[in-house]
Design a protein that fits this description.
Blueprint (H helix, E strand, L loop, with lengths): L11 E10 L2 E11 L15 H8 L7 E5 L26 H6 L9 H14 L4
Antiparallel strand pairs: 1-2, 1-3
Length: about 130
């Protein structure tokens, strides 16, 4: 699995990833480099490890072997990529804005900055 080569510095590198659950291995020896301005899709039939790979790339699970690195961070500490889950992942005890802010909470932003950033996409869809 590889992305189209780009002249710019990568935003994410995955080398020799082996992924799975417990003693069950789902993927082995995955190498992937993502560059700015690329569109990358992970395609395959149900159960081949697409979501497992994406979870490892975003840091939601640790690989059995190999490493994921993000060589450069943006000046505002935001990520150059994100993940949208297949099923809704809202917390019913949080209000809409608080659910949107959830992805911003680990970035060290002030409460006011998280609110400002969350309100932009909510306004785009009329949920302000």
């Amino acid at each position: 699995m590889s992305a189209v080569t780009s002249a710019s510095a990568p935003v994410l590198n995955a080398r020799n990833l082996s992924l799975g659950f417990g003693h069950t291995t789902v993927l082995t020896d995955v190498d992937l480099t993502l560059h700015p301005q690329e569109f990358t899709a992970v395609v395959g039939t149900s159960g081949v490890g697409k979501s497992t790979l994406l979870r490892a790339l975003t840091g939601l699970i640790a690989p059995h072997d190999g490493e994921v690195s993000i060589p450069a961070r943006r000046a505002d500490a935001s990520r150059a990529w994100s993940m949208v889950f297949q099923a809704p992942r809202l917390f019913p005890w949080r209000r809409v804005r608080a659910n949107v802010e959830l992805g911003l909470e680990g970035l060290g932003l002030s409460r006011a900055e998280r609110r400002r950033r969350a309100m932009e996409p909510l306004a785009l869809v009329g949920l302000e």
